[in-house]
């Protein structure tokens, strides 16, 4: 399985990458801004995208919209956000997000959600 992490917080990325690799959930690629996310999504297929909502150049919601509307892909998407406002959560789901996790989050919980999503494919 191929997993893309889109987040500009190096500490968060490092922890997620470590956990997913340790759990042997797949090959993990990382980008730290929305522009690079779009570029890699154009060139590669991923089985799961994990994206922060706030990133340079474009947001996780815009990445979700890009995957759904421009690329026409049904790739599962988990949105991460320190902003757990109801409007933000609803907007993420309306754009096609599969799941939403508020920061700070448990790496064990994230791994369980990733396993659930990947096993349903």
From TrEMBL:
CDD domains: REC (cd00156). The modification 4-aspartylphosphate is found at residue 52. This is Response regulator. It comes from Chryseotalea sanaruensis. InterPro entries: Bact_response_regulator, CheY-like_superfamily, Sig_transdc_resp-reg_receiver. Pfam families: Response_reg. Residues 2-118 form the Response regulatory domain. GO terms for biological process: phosphorelay signal transduction system. PROSITE patterns: RESPONSE_REGULATORY (PS50110). Keywords: Phosphoprotein.
